Amino acid sequence: QWIYLDGEFVRKEDAKISVFDHGFLYGDGVFEGIRVYNGNVYKLEEHLIRLYNSAKSIMLEIPYTMDEMTEIIVETLKKNELSDAYIRLVISRGVGNLGLDPASCSSPQIVVIAEELAIYPKEFYDNGLDIITVATRRNSPDVLSPKVKSLNYLNNILVKIEASLAGVSEALMLNNEGYVAEGSADNIFILRGGVLFTPPGYIGALEGITRQAIVELADELGYDLREEPFTRHDVYTADEVFLTGTAAEVIAVVKVDGRIIGDGKPGKETQRLLEAFREKVVEDGVR
Ligand code: PLP
């Protein structure tokens, strides 16, 4: 496995960064997780726009244009001879002195890891997920916007820890007002009375690329889709619940905090959207 590390390709064993990197010391940086389907990098432009916006928000200047970054990603895939893959693109503030001030960091560190995709087990899709809501809250938009995909993923990590302590594979975070925000690395949709709902960005959620793809797909397929805040009660009493994300694609949820959703099996509309999504992914890529 070859890793792109600051302008060159190095073997996985040799891909190391300094302990003075501010990404390591302070979580100072941004990242993206991108999927490659059959040699096509799915929605690369959207991922790069989100990355550059995240970087702008934290005042980190990426020393490459989006075209150059595209080239780096395509080269990394070629070098690793991968056609179905998961790409992790990380940009940290780079090496500096101890101390929070990024002024001492000379240049951002750019890392691209491309690896074989580790997809969720098929049973997860066939049976749907049993999930919970956890005590960890989504950071509120007035602090550091949840729209910034930064290297500070502690809330999300705590969500995962709380989920595994409870013996489930995923969990939902609420925001500080108690509205449902998102999963640890997935957005949420619910279907109630024939209407699809997903929390609006201001609730505090990442603007997921998969979420946007589902919003567009739902529109094409004639669903009534509303971006409105909702509570746990709305989730418990929904007809269908599903999560969306780069790794998970579209995955049904069949139980939330012990409440069975619908008839306890992945919902029909969820299945339909997953199938439509999978048919479409191959068309939307950069080769
Ligand atoms: N929410 C968070 C916090 C995430 O990290 C992710 C994953 O990137 C998502 C949602 C889903 O977004 P996407 O569909 O772009 O993968």
Automatic annotation (TrEMBL):
Cofactor section: pyridoxal 5'-phosphate
Gene3D superfamilies associated with the record: 3.30.470.10, D-amino Acid Aminotransferase, subunit A, domain 2
Keyword Hydrolase: no
CDD domains in alphabetical order: D-AAT_like
Pathway(s) annotated for this protein in UniProt: Amino-acid biosynthesis; L-leucine biosynthesis; L-leucine from 3-methyl-2-oxobutanoate: step 4/4; Amino-acid biosynthesis; L-valine biosynthesis; L-valine from pyruvate: step 4/4; Amino-acid biosynthesis; L-isoleucine biosynthesis; L-isoleucine from 2-oxobutanoate: step 4/4
Enzyme Commission (EC) number: 2.6.1.42
InterPro entries linked: Aminotrans_IV, Aminotrans_IV_CS, Aminotransferase-like, B_amino_transI, BCAT-like_C, BCAT-like_N, Class-IV_PLP-Dep_Aminotrnsfr
Amino-acid biosynthesis found in the keyword field: yes
Reactions catalysed according to its record: L-valine + 2-oxoglutarate = 3-methyl-2-oxobutanoate + L-glutamate; L-leucine + 2-oxoglutarate = 4-methyl-2-oxopentanoate + L-glutamate; L-isoleucine + 2-oxoglutarate = (S)-3-methyl-2-oxopentanoate + L-glutamate
Annotated GO biological process: isoleucine biosynthetic process; L-leucine biosynthetic process; L-valine biosynthetic process
Gene Ontology cellular-component annotations: cytosol
This protein's UniProt keywords: Amino-acid biosynthesis, Aminotransferase, Branched-chain amino acid biosynthesis, Pyridoxal phosphate, Transferase
GO terms of molecular function: L-isoleucine-2-oxoglutarate transaminase activity; L-leucine-2-oxoglutarate transaminase activity; L-valine-2-oxoglutarate transaminase activity
Family per record: Belongs to the class-IV pyridoxal-phosphate-dependent aminotransferase family.
Xref: PANTHER family: AMINO-ACID AMINOTRANSFERASE, AMINODEOXYCHORISMATE LYASE
Function as written in the Swiss-Prot or TrEMBL entry: Acts on leucine, isoleucine and valine.
Protein name: Branched-chain-amino-acid aminotransferase
Organism expressing this protein natively: Salibacterium salarium
Taxonomic placement: Bacteria, Bacillati, Bacillota, Bacilli, Bacillales
Gene name of the encoded protein: ilvE
